[in-house]
Amino acid sequence: xxKNIKAGIIGLGWPGKEHLKGxxxxxxxxxxxxxxxxxxxxxxxxxxxxxxKTYTDYKKMLEVxxxxxxxxxxxxxxxxxxxxxxxNAGTNVLCEKPPAMSxxxxxxxxxxxxxxxxVLMYALVMRFTxxxxxxxxMIDAGDIGEIYLGKAGYTRxxxxxxxxxxxxxDNARSGGGAMIDIGVHALDCIWYLMGTPKPxxxxxxxxxxxxxxxxxxxxxxxxxxxxALIKFANGASLFLEASWAWNxxxxxxxxVAGTKGGIxxxxxxxxxxxxxxxxxxxxxxxxxxxxxGSAPSNPFAGEIAHFCDVLRGKTKLIATPEQGIxxxxxxxxxxxxxxxxxxxxx
Length: 346
Ligand SMILES: NC(=O)c1ccc[n+]([C@@H]2O[C@H](COP(=O)([O-])OP(=O)(O)OC[C@H]3O[C@@H](n4cnc5c(N)ncnc54)[C@H](O)[C@@H]3O)[C@@H](O)[C@H]2O)c1
Hints:
Elements: E1 5-10, H1 14-24, E2 29-35, H2 39-49, E3 53-55, H3 58-65, E4 69-72, H4 79-88, E5 92-96, H5 103-116, E6 120-123, H6 130-140, E7 147-155, H7 171-174, H8 178-193, E8 199-207, E9 225-232, E10 237-243, E11 251-258, E12 261-264, E13 269-274, E14 277-282, H9 299-311, H10 321-340, E15 344-345
Parallel strand pairs: 1-2, 1-4, 2-3, 4-5, 5-6, 7-10
Antiparallel strand pairs: 7-11, 8-9, 8-15, 9-10, 11-12, 12-13, 13-14
Helix pairs in contact: 1-9, 4-5, 5-10, 8-10
The chain binds nicotinamide-adenine-dinucleotide.
């Protein structure tokens, strides 16, 4: 069991910097090195946060630093290659969402983790908000009963990300648009609260109508709005929507419906029935109390604290390689169903 964890980060975009702050806030962790192709960015981030070792070549960082833990915060098309390289180097991996570009890639990552005997955790950050953690505790305590319906949505009225070299909107490098990028957050949060039931079918639609919102000359071949109905082996089902741009409001729908109650995550509300009276409970304070469940309130700090606790053998991994494979089956299922016009069965 490791007391002190030597960590590093590959990719210093916005999420990479959130991981950086998470490691710095985590007791017993030494953030030894950071890596990015972009040297000016690398130097400025390292100087700002006092990180001594910097690398532009991740392979060299893994070889020289012999890290216990590395965050893989690079574009989607590199998740598989970099995670497997790190696992093969004996390093435990925290990989950003979406797990990969396909279920086959996620499967290869899971196999590499198993073969190396190292932890592969997916940075499914919505599981670590105070609201999700509180909801999960209520569900696990049986307060909501049997959950049979979920509704998950993450929509923006206008908000198409580009990323370095416009990779977000290039299907070959992102694996898809709104659904794989932000739909995954909403899907994962509700699927997790539903108890990660086994998906059996997906029926989906995907649209691309907002090319005019992307700079001229940028290749744009991904969905800007998608919807899906996912059915599970336990009879439950989940309605999912995602958009980067549409002529409707931006939303963050996260709802689970059970036989004894229902929960809305954002803003947090609980719907119950007591003595035949239908009740709607809202938070007494403005938020779930800071430090609820003794985890950090910041979800990135929470996911990194969880990753480090797993490495120290203090807790069981909650965002597993197997779940990464199933998430990719569902996300790819949405796209395949949209393309073929058929329900996809697993
Ligand atoms: N959890 C979240 O809320 C969240 C938010 C945004 C993005 N993400 C995910 O994080 C990942 C990165 O997204 P981003 O927004 O930071 O993209 P980005 O393009 O803004 O930044 C990626 C960074 O990684 C660097 N990089 C890429 N490949 C590299 C390599 N092989 N070696 C070294 N450096 C490399 C780039 O130079 C760049 O600085 C994506 O998978 C994305 O889906 C997660």
